[in-house]
């Protein structure tokens, strides 16, 4: 299972790079346009992914977290968001690289954001949720790009495996 999480941490960085490269081509008006998705715009969606990652990594690493709202606009400007995204992707990779099976099997307790309550569960399913959450909202960002520009880069895991030569093609 640890190899699975290591792969997903690397895939996460790869997919975010592709997504941000495409989003960088949007005009400011497009970037902030309400596209009628959960967090309205590309700006809101990309910020939300970082909000979720910040909350979960703070929980995993048991460090204070300033997240008070799931729709917080942590970085109104694209460049600030991109710098924070890169830092977070490195943080996730470093964290996963330090895990072992006993840590993944252990319980941890955290406090939720929306309706504060204590939750205890095993680390492995919560870490799987982190990666699933990112993929879900990157799909929304992909739809925004397609709607605004008519195209978006492939973000599927299989493309990552092919791009990084992890998969064998004959």
Describe the structure.
By secondary structure, the chain is mostly helical. It has a single domain (2-163), classed as Four Helix Bundle (Hemerythrin (Met), subunit A), CATH 1.20.120. Helix content is 62%, strand content 6%. A two-stranded antiparallel ribbon has the order 1-2. β1 and β2 (118-122) form a beta hairpin. α1 runs antiparallel to α4 (78-97), α1 runs parallel beside α6 (123-149) and α3 (42-61) packs antiparallel against α6 (123-149).
Main sheet: strand order = 1-2
- Proportion of residues in extended strands: 5-15%
Percent helix, as a range, is 55-70%
Number of helices: 7
The CATH architecture classification is Up-down Bundle
The CATH topology corresponds to Four Helix Bundle (Hemerythrin (Met), subunit A)
Sum up the overall morphology in one term: globular
Biggest sheet, open or closed, and with what strands and sense?
Answer: 2 strands, antiparallel
Over the alpha carbons, how many angstroms does the gyration radius reach?
Answer: 16 Å
Element string (H = helix, E = strand): HHHHHEEHH
* Overall residue-averaged pLDDT value: 94
**Stretches with pLDDT under 50, minimum 5 residues:** none
């Amino acid at each position: 299972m640890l190899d699975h999480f290591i792969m997903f941490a690397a895939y996460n960085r790869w997919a975010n790079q592709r997504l941000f490269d495409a989003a960088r081509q949007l005009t400011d008006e497009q970037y902030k346009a309400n596209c009628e998705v959960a967090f309205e715009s590309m700006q809101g969606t990309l910020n939300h992914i970082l909000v979720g990652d910040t909350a979960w990594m703070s929980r995993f690493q048991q460090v204070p977290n300033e997240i008070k709202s799931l729709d917080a606009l942590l970085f109104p400007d694209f460049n600030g968001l991109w710098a924070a995204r890169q830092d977070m992707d490195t943080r996730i990779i470093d964290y996963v690289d330090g895990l072992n099976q006993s840590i993944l099997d252990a319980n941890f307790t955290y406090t939720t954001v929306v309706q504060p309550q204590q939750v205890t569960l095993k680390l492995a399913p919560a870490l799987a949720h982190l990666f699933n959450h990112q993929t879900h909202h990157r799909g929304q960002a992909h739809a925004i790009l397609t709607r605004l520009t008519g195209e978006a880069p492939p973000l599927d895991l299989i493309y990552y495996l092919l791009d990084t030569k992890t998969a064998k093609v004959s």
